[in-house]
C-alpha cells in the first residue's frame, strides 16, 4: 500500500460547540529521564514508567491542535509544526482541518497558548498566512518575551527567530491577552506561566459544559501529571511550572471538568483525579456522547 492515510481526528460535542482534535503527528524521544524528571535519578523515572506499563528507554510525544466550531466562529487552538515539520512526518494539522470539513479561509480566530514552534509553525504556508481571514490571540507577556532582542545570544534565540518569522507578521491583527481576557464569548484565558513566561490556558464554557485547554502545562500523562513537581527540560522556569501544574490541575480535579492537553495521548482529552503525589489521568470515554 502506498496511499497516505489522513491524520487521526476525533470529534465531540461540548454544549453547542463542536470540537475536533487533530493529531499533527508524533515523535519518538530517547531517554525519557533527560526530559521529564530531569532532577531525578534515571532509575526513578524508569521505575515510574515501568509501573505504568510504559517503555523505559523511549517515549512517544504527540501533538494535538484543535478546532472549536461555536456556530458563529471557527477557532483554531495552536497550529502544530506546519511545513517545517513535514519532513519528519509532522505538520499534518492543515490536512486534518480539510479532512474535518473546513477550509483555511473559514477559520475566524487562531488562539495560541504559547509561542513554541510546535504551536506556531502552522501559521504560515509558503510565505503566506495559512488562515487568511482570521484574527489572532496570544498572551501579552508571551509575545513581549519572545520578540525581545534580549533573547539573542541565549538558548531562546531559535524560538525568538521563529516568532519573528511566524508571529510578528500578524501583530496588526493580534489581540494580546492578560489573565482573564476573552477570546470569544464563553472562552477566556488564564495565565499559567512556567513552561514559558506568558503561557495561557483557555477555559471554554457552552450550555453549562466546560473544558480547559491546558496547552503545555503538563506534557506527559504519567511523568508530568503523576509527578507534577518533577522538573521538565522544556520548561523555562521549572519551579514556577511545577507550581502552575499543581494550581491548574488542582482546579480541574476539584471541579471534575475535562481538559484537552496538547501532548496528552490522542485524542488528548481526559480528566484528572488528585492523588497523594500528583494526579491520575483518566482518558475520555463516552462522557460526551450522552
UniProtKB/TrEMBL annotation:
Question: Which UniProt keywords are present, listed alphabetically?
Answer: Hydrolase, Metal-binding, Zinc
| One Pfam match | Lactamase_B
Q: Which Gene3D superfamilies match?
A: Ribonuclease Z/Hydroxyacylglutathione hydrolase-like
Q: Where is the signal peptide?
A: none
Question: What InterPro entries does this protein's entry cite?
Answer: MBL_superfamily_lactonases, Metallo-B-lactamas, RibonucZ/Hydroxyglut_hydro
Give the Metallo-beta-lactamase domain ranges. 62-263
- Recall the GO molecular function terms of this protein's record: hydrolase activity; metal ion binding
- Asked if the Swiss-Prot or TrEMBL record annotates the protein with the keyword Transferase, the reply is no
| Entry keyword Amino-acid biosynthesis | no
Q: Which family does it belong to?
A: Belongs to the metallo-beta-lactamase superfamily.
Looking up PANTHER family in the UniProt record yields: QUORUM-QUENCHING LACTONASE YTNP-RELATED, QUORUM-QUENCHING LACTONASE YTNP-RELATED-RELATED
The protein, known as: Putative beta-lactamase family protein
Which species does the entry assign this protein to?
A: Rhizobium freirei PRF 81
